[in-house]
Design a protein that fits this description.
Structural class: alpha+beta
Strand order of the largest sheet: 1-6-7-5-4-3-2
Number of strands: 7
Shape: globular
Largest sheet: 7 strands, antiparallel
Strand content: 15-25%
Helix content: 10-25%
Radius of gyration: 18 Å
Distance between the termini: 38 Å
């Protein structure tokens, strides 16, 4: 790791391009019905109305939304209202008040609104998830097999604490390995060497313990991203890739 620029995206916190793998499971698709299509468009229309004021990310911050892991470069940034997210994890679902708002950064470093994320309890069944947003149009996902260094909890991550001030934290780059190592460690904390976290190389409990970590079979609950601003194509709105924000 010779420089920061070439590795900023390596420990992407939660990823934007989703796919099956050791760190993620997804719901299976179901046959699509006319009612599913109607419900899906209701979600899109509701979000377009509810999110319009958040095109200015400062409004979201002023209303109490907090950026998840703001120092870590990500494909998509989650601005989370932890009160609303807690309600979702308790089974209370409000289409007009998603727990997280999704942004990307443009070339100027400004946040650009692209969508929202809803959550649901970890123990929800496919039928329960389908009742919220139909499985024929959306893939709910869950983060699995996550290794976090000992001393770091999910609550720490929600507070933005990635252990950057702890020089002995597993996952930090040895300061002698590169002239950029101290700066990378300050920015990325335990994510610096790419072993830990939501897209880390470690996905096995024994390997996690050997590396000085603790293993989570599932982190958080079920989640689904919705991108309502790129037209009415449901495959885009409920797709697994972050769409390019429309020019306006």
């Amino acid at each position: 790791m010779a420089d920061m620029d070439s590795h900023e995206m390596a420990p992407n916190a939660m990823g934007g391009q989703m796919g099956m793998g050791a760190h993620m499971v997804m719901t299976s698709s179901r046959p699509q019905t006319p009612n599913d299509i109607e419900r899906a468009h209701e979600v899109i229309d509701t979000l377009r109305r509810a999110l319009v004021k958040y095109h200015d990310s400062r409004v979201a911050l002023a209303e109490g939304y907090r950026i998840f892991l703001p120092t870590v470069a990500q494909e998509v940034y989650h601005f989370t209202d932890y009160g609303a997210a807690s309600q979702e994890y308790s089974g209370h679902f409000d289409l007009a008040r998603p727990g997280s708002i999704l942004y990307v950064k443009n070339s100027s470093g400004d946040y650009v609104l692209v969508g929202a994320m809803y959550s649901a309890p970890a123990d929800y069944t496919p039928d329960q998830l389908d009742a919220l947003i139909p499985l024929s149009v959306a893939h709910w996902h869950a983060h699995t097999n996550i290794c976090l260094p000992n001393g770091i909890t999910l609550d720490d991550l929600l507070r933005g604490d990635i252990g950057a001030t702890h020089l002995d934290m597993p996952g930090m780059m040895p300061v002698a390995s590169s002239r950029s190592a101290p700066a990378i460690n300050r920015r990325l904390g335990f994510l610096a060497d790419g072993r830990f976290g939501f897209t880390g190389k470690i996905a096995d409990a024994a390997e996690c313990e050997a590396a000085g970590g603790h293993f989570l079979k599932q982190a958080f609950g079920w989640m689904v991203h919705v991108y309502p601003f790129n037209g009415d194509d449901l495959k885009v709105a409920f797709g697994m890739s972050v769409p390019t924000p429309p020019a306006n």
